[in-house]
């Protein structure tokens, strides 16, 4: 997929204030500092489109970007940031849960995981919830440039082991690096395929 146009649209604290659900949507979520905003910049080829920071907790709202006037990319605030108060954490959960359940055009959630860290309960629990609720998701292992391929392979095996009996194999997953561009084509091709499904479904429902 060629990205001709990528623009920031809006930031919202509530799903019902988000742009009208007229196009397929993909949301990026994961622990604070995992590299969500950096991945958005890498995929779109626009440095600075999504604000990044070396200190966690930068992204606080539901941020919509519109790509090629055809689909939405959404940058969500990270979870599991220790310095956030209990109240803010509860607010985060309310905002995200509502968004995930009430966004009719949400085609897939991209769960980002730092490929240097062993499986974390917070990520496993989040994916289990998505699975239970039937919300489609894929996994993205970020920052792959920071370690060797064999270390990453071991991590994938570890994830599969920890994800329990419901998974015979890992859910669809991608390895990415915002530094080297690794995984860019794979992720964009995946999105192009799902966009195509959206178009076909819309045509058959017309
Ligand atoms: N080496 C390397 N560094 C990365 C990569 N992706 C992100 N980073 C760095 O990790 C830090 C956090 O990146 P962000 O993209 O801001 O992370 P985020 O998940 O959006 O963080 P929050 O918005 O705080 O939840 C920044 O210092 C990035 O430069 C990557 O693929 N490789
Ligand atoms: Mg961010």
From TrEMBL:
Which stretches make up the EngB-type G domain?
22-197
Could you tell me the keywords of this UniProt record? Cell cycle, Cell division, GTP-binding, Magnesium, Metal-binding, Nucleotide-binding, Septation
Is-annotated flag, keyword Ribosomal protein? no
Q: Which domain of life is it from?
A: Bacteria
One Pfam match, given by its short name, reads MMR_HSR1
Cofactors needed by this protein, per the record, are: Mg(2+)
Q: Which InterPro entries match?
A: G_ENGB_dom, GTP-bd, GTP-bd_ribosome_bio_YsxC, P-loop_NTPase
Q: Which family does it belong to?
A: Belongs to the TRAFAC class TrmE-Era-EngA-EngB-Septin-like GTPase superfamily. EngB GTPase family.
Q: What does this protein do?
A: Necessary for normal cell division and for the maintenance of normal septation.
What is the name of this protein? Probable GTP-binding protein EngB
Q: What is the lineage of its organism?
A: Bacteria, Pseudomonadati, Bacteroidota, Cytophagia, Cytophagales
């Amino acid at each position: 997929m060629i990205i001709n146009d990528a623009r920031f649209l809006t930031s919202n604290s509530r799903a019902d204030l988000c742009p009208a659900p007229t196009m397929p949507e993909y949301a990026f979520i994961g622990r604070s500092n995992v590299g969500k905003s950096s991945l958005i910049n890498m995929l779109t080829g626009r440095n600075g489109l999504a604000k990044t920071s070396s200190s966690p907790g930068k992204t606080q709202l539901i941020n919509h970007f519109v790509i090629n006037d055809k689909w939405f990319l959404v940058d969500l605030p990270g979870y599991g940031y220790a310095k956030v108060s209990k109240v803010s954490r509860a607010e985060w959960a309310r905002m995200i849960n509502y968004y995930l359940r009430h966004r009719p055009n949400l085609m897939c959630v991209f769960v980002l995981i730092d490929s240097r860290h062993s499986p974390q309960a917070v990520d496993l629990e989040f994916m289990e919830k998505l699975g239970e609720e039937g919300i489609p998701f894929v996994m993205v292992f970020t920052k792959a440039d920071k370690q060797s391929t064999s270390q990453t392979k071991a991590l994938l095996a570890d994830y599969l082991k920890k994800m329990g009996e419901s998974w015979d194999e890992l859910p669809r997953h991608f390895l990415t690096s915002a530094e080297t561009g690794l995984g860019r084509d794979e992720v964009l091709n995946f999105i192009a395929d799902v966009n195509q499904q959206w178009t076909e479904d819309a045509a058959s429902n017309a």
